[in-house]
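Appendix C reproduces, verbatim, an entry submitted by the partner laboratory led by Prof. M.T., so that reviewers can inspect both the input and the predicted structure.
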Amino acid sequence: MQPITLTDEQRQFRSVLRQFCEDKIAPRAAETDHLARYDWDAFHALVTMELPALGIPVEYGGAGADLVTQPIAAEQLARVCASTSLMLLISKLSMLPIMNFGTEELKRTYLPRVASGESQGSYCLSEADAGSDVASMTTRAVRDGDSYVITGTKVWITNAGISDIYIVFARTDPTAKHRGISAFVVEKDWGVQVTKLEEKMGVKGSPTGQLLFDEVRVPATNLLGQEGEGFTIAMHTLDRSRPTIGAQAVGIAQGALDYAIGYMKERKAFGRPIAELQGLQFMVADAAMKVEAARGLVYQACAVVDEDDLLVLRSHEGVRAVVADANAPMRPPAETEDGRGLALQAVDQGVVPVQDADLERATAARERVQEVAETQRHTDVVPSDGRAAVEVPRDDHDRALRALGGAAERVEVGGAVHEHGEARGPRDGAAVLRELEQARFGGRGLPRGAVRRPRASVHCRGRCRSRASPVAAEERDTRPRITRSGRSWRGAFYKGALSA
């Protein structure tokens, strides 16, 4: 894996590209976004620098750059114009399925066209009712001899109408959910129609639209992988393209910070530039720290993905943090504008480059919770006096049951419920609690008021009986839940908390 620092070649590439962006792209950015039009001159400038070939393998006419060098380009372009950065990113996204799942014929047909700038590509996955829930897509692909007939609508398609190559995901088996989705390479001239272009708040120089496939006939040779592998292809592609979206977010944040610093040097208050005000300096320092941290996370994630190992999914935790909070570095600089409208300009330039930031947050949180649950499995034990609780490792649940079984009126392990007619007094329960506290917390004891509310409480009927087989119950769940009847557990909780 590449070290966290850039190589000399990558630093030189970044320096050259930054100067190119300042000279050729930045002067056109505001007008492009204001007019909401695709800037062909900017695209031709990218072709002159051979940037569309950056991520294409050498054997197909590309430069074969590693996945750390590619985000450098995305960041530098996004720093001056988010719309222009998408010209580079969207074609690479659409070519990833061909590079990883296409036949040799498909690779030699389409990859050189994109590398040379002759063609551009788009990725057609989302539908009106199938955004994050990809398995709910309704676009159909029906086999008809040596071709497929595709019928359906795709929405939020970047570069709609500009691209002439579309990676389309459609359902070939309507009963198999995500296993019934397949992927195809579709050319614009085969009948792809643009029915709507979205009016967006930002990134207006990159068209986003709705595509209609009205019985578009596609050769069977343009199927990517096998039938039913479309969902796998889609997720595989997104996993390996998300880091570059993080790089785009870093570039936008860096551009906003640079703009704010320039303005702070110009505007004066109390007879001096506001850049000399310590409060604003703190805000700039915090924003710069966040941008640099985000940049490091993106480069590290790209290096991991470049290795294509099992850590690829874990690498996205950092990228999710970047994409999900791409606005954070912008907020302090925006406040320095004093009504001049940097916040509005930032929106026009596309501070939020993706729509699924919340989804990324949720996914990262779910993975983290699952990891913690697997590494810190424990058993909750509530003593008979209801005043405190301790956490006993799952391996000690038998000892906990033996120790506390007589000190509680009801013990539940999974589906097995044991009710005892004779309960020991609070003093015995307190002694057992101290014993478990010493075992768990090294004799330090548990803070007062640390009460965990039991899940249930029933009155003891004076008999001990088992409602389920202990063996069967242990297979289902081995967490003992010990409760005591005859008192309000909610009241005990607040009482313990107030007395702490």
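The domain at 242-375 is CATH 1.20.140.10 (Butyryl-CoA Dehydrogenase, subunit A; domain 3). Additional entries are available on request from the coordinating office.
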